């Protein structure tokens, strides 16, 4: 779609995964200030920021990464209140939006992207019998993208083991 993507996380394995999926820039928020780095790298910050982590520090960093007249979309839902930096938001005309789900039109557009080959699903197919192992992996942050459960008997025979690359979580 011609967009330049920056992935921010605190896990190097997930950042490596994002890079393999096509991220132009990756930032480890444990070791670097994502807002400062992004503003330096692209001059002014991101036009659009999508925050999926249910973390108040991630929300704060996301707003800080948003450039003047940019949009910051909050999808994750952390506990507690989110203290919005009102002066910065107003002075920079930043739009902050929240979203639980998309509309039917949004879903149709997403399916069109996938049908046109512009989106590749990064999944790991596992049988239902592996559910306990999958939950353990999720608890330990060892699932790099999505696991799809195959409920069919044939699917239980052809399930694939998770792939692990050097350095990936």
Furnish the topology, listing elements before pairings.
Elements: E1 6-9, H1 12-20, E2 25-28, H2 34-42, E3 46-51, H3 56-65, E4 66-74, H4 86-91, E5 95-98, H5 104-115, E6 123-127, H6 131-139, E7 146-150, H7 153-157
Parallel strand pairs: 1-2, 3-4, 4-5, 6-7
Structure description:
This protein is α/β, with parallel strands linked by helices. It has seven helices and seven strands; from the N terminus they run E-H-E-H-E-H-E-H-E-H-E-H-E-H. The strands form three sheets. A three-stranded parallel beta sheet has the order 3-4-5, covered by helices on one side. Strands 1-2 form a two-stranded parallel ribbon. It is globular. Mean pLDDT is 85; it is low at 163-169.
Describe the structure concisely for a colleague:
Helices cover 36% and strands 22% of the residues. It is an alpha/beta fold and 169 residues long.
How many beta-strand segments? 7
- Residues in β-strands, percent: 15-25%
Q: What percentage of residues falls in helices of 4 or more residues? A: 25-40%
Structural class: alpha/beta
General form = globular
Q: Which fold does the CATH topology of the largest domain refer to?
A: Rossmann fold
Overall average residue pLDDT = 85
> What's the main sheet like?
3 strands, parallel
